[in-house]
Amino acid sequence: MADSSRLVLTPGDLHRQSDRLRTRGPVTVVELPGEVEAFAVTWDATLRRVLADPRFVKNIGHWLAWSEGRIPRDWELASWVVPENMLTADGDHHRRLRGLVSQAFTPGRIEALAPRIIQIVDQLLDQMGSLNGRHVDLKAALALPLPLTVISELFGVAERDRAPLQELCAAVFDQSLTRSQAAAAQRGLQQSLAKLVAHKRTVPGEDMTSALIAACDGTDQLDESELIWTLALMIGAGYETTMNLILNAVHALLTHPRQLALVLTGHYGWDAVVEETLRWDPSIANLPFRYTREEVHLEGVVIPAGSAVLMCYGAAGRDPARHGATAHRFDLHRDDASSHLAFSHGAHYCLGAPLARLEARLVLQRLFTRFPRLRLAAPASALVAMPSLIANGFSELPVTASPSPLTPRYGENGRVEEDVPPEGQRSA
């Protein structure tokens, strides 16, 4: 029976839920699918404290509800708490796993990917062709295939295997699935990655999967389960979060044409767009879990030992205590946009952050250079959010490029209020 005093979190419309969470205070009790209780941390300063506090750990063995069997093993969010990878590891275990994977994300290796990223972007934009009067789902045409191709090449996933693997990874973020469907997807993902590992053991290449296998087989630093789940994390998160970053940035610009004009006229760079998007509309809204090793008193709330703590990055990104009274607005003028927590904080700071930033910057730059009059092909209010409690993005993003020399201006409800002159001819 649901507790009426708790806020019940449901897939989709994550920003409205984040706003409700934040108004309840820095720490509040929520109910997840299956009537699972967690403590949600929603204010920026409090979330930073939790992320740096050793009393909040990643090891699921500290979660009493799980260890005592009160949560079924086929729980809808089980794939977020049971894997043996960096997301669920602490201390030396985490450092060992992170050290093995970090070689794929050195600054030099990331920068070396830029020419290939540009090549992929240009190929995808060529396939989009002219958009005058024609609607295209930007997710399917650009935002999904770009990071999926990049991460697949980095980890040696053959082209024929990418679409099936992507569907399995996407299921991890989809909380509209039944328990049996979620469990089947989890098994399918493990089996698919086990096949990848088996193939790479036979035919190794110059890719990160082969490098991780070598670490596993050569030094016994990585067991088979850790290897499979590390691949699941790096491949799945590697494309999904970047895909949503790209879509959220395009959506932000197209619903804020004055801000877009500032970029197209050179007042702000694409890096500023990326950082403000990460603050205002992060790819991950909520991330399970940290667990309390002992009873913790936090912001006047007593969190019992063995509790699950949900990290609400979406709520923290719009925290007015951190980002001012205009925190709810997408605004390139702000000086503190890069102080967001979209990539977490501390020891678990996202390894893939430089790659995500690079891909987003390059694709936005080239997309709006090719299609400076890009516009939404549907009212913003009609866009459908992903059916997820974790990932923050759109099921699709229909766009077109108007043949008119005018750029649409959207109101708060997402409808076109008026057309404004071309960029640079009217003050933003």
UniProtKB/TrEMBL annotation:
Record-linked InterPro entries: Cyt_P450 (IPR001128), Cyt_P450_B (IPR002397), Cyt_P450_CS (IPR017972), Cyt_P450_sf (IPR036396)
Region annotated Disordered, chain positions: 401-428
Heme in keyword set: yes
Annotated signal sequence range: none
Keywords, sorted A to Z: Heme, Iron, Metal-binding, Monooxygenase, Oxidoreductase
Gene3D superfamilies recorded: Cytochrome P450 (1.10.630.10)
PROSITE patterns according to UniProt: CYTOCHROME_P450
Name this polypeptide is given: Cytochrome P450
